[in-house]
User: Fold this.
Amino acid sequence: MKYNRPRLFAASCIAMITLAMTFSVRVDILSALGAEFDLSHYQQGLIITAVSWSYPVAIFVIGPLCDALGMGRLMLLACACHVAGISLTIASPAFGFTMLLVATILIGLGDGIAEAVFNPLVTTMYPDEKTGRIGLLHSFWPAGLIIGGVLCLAISPFFHLSVPGVSAAAVSLSWKVKMATALLPALAYGALMYGQEFPQTERAASGVSTGDMFREALRPGFLILLVCMVFTAVTEVGPDQWIGSVMTDTVGIRGIWFLIYTAGIMFVMRVYAAQLVRLLTPFGLLMLSCVSATAGLYWMSYSFTPLVALVAATFFGAGKACLWPTLIGVTSERYPRGGAFLLALLGGTGMIVGGLAGPVMGRIYDRYTINALPPQVARVVVVNGRYSPVARERLVESEKNLPEPGPASAALANAEKQGAAMTFRYVALTPILPFFAYIGLALYHRSRGGYRTVALGRPKRRRRGGRMEPS
Assistant:
């Protein structure tokens, strides 16, 4: 079968940009959505969960069926979900919070279907450089974060969002315009994929049965990697979902700047992932990444000035950069018989845990914010046991004519700073356990002669009736 490898790889990269742009735009507009729908931090976390739960549903169902359903059809389905989800998000204020959740679920389904296809597609097209190509593909995740973040920053001045007292109508229109920008890459990758021939996955082309594919998921080495993905997801997806709100509250600078900065570090490191793997070995790179991510997150939780926060974010960005793609690459290299199913299982588990991290971090945010409030302020902004952004804005608005920040506004700012910091302080513990797991795996492979890629041969053929057939 002939297929256009450069075009399919480019389309996969643009699909990754779509996933990342919807993520970074959601990070930037999360507070605006909170004001539009009067959502607590916990409820804002539910929006994140809607993506992170629909994503693995799609990836678990679609991953094992890539060959049966056809990669081309699935990528067009992913494109349709992205376009519909983005469009319905923009229209959701006319229909209420339920429509926002439905739209977000559609985006998550598009994300999951796309990743269920392009990870095995790339490992199939580049069997001799899997980890490097997967790293390059996943470098377009931070590239998409940067594109989405820069567009959000460029759009904001047109709506005067930095001007005190900006109208609710302007804020509402601004986040809709920002979300609409993600339609461009979604339509682009759909157009590139349309009408193209696709290869069989490496597992199917090698004649590995479906039963053997599922049995690979029970191998101890893979199960260890699956547990490590749980902690990797909390380390990367959790803080990225909240960095917009957290860094705005702790440092006083729009958190999207920090997302763009750490994404830039991720992009550079993922582009050179192949060289880093050769220099450090896969498990050496994973161990170093865990140390850097832990240091960065813990330091960020104590960073209340821009310069200190920037240095801490550098460690965090470098630490999270190679964790996810290296785990996918190692799985594909060591357990190729598991094919698309193992890659789907790995990515889907990561997104489930990442989704759980969103509302959990939101609860931490709310809990420590409320605990740090003076009782007289808490009585105003805590409504039915939850922190209310609308009540908060009313209280701040009542003091806007004072010559300097009023006592209630100052108390709110301090409480939000403390609540925001604690969200990262808790998450900083998550990379520690995988660090020791990677040490154990590195020692195991060294005892067996070093890390090696497992190659799948073509299926043996036997003669039947004067012609050759797969055995």
DSSP finds 21 helices and four strands in the chain. The CA atoms of residues 375 and 382 lie 10 Å apart. The chain has one domain: 9-194+212-448.
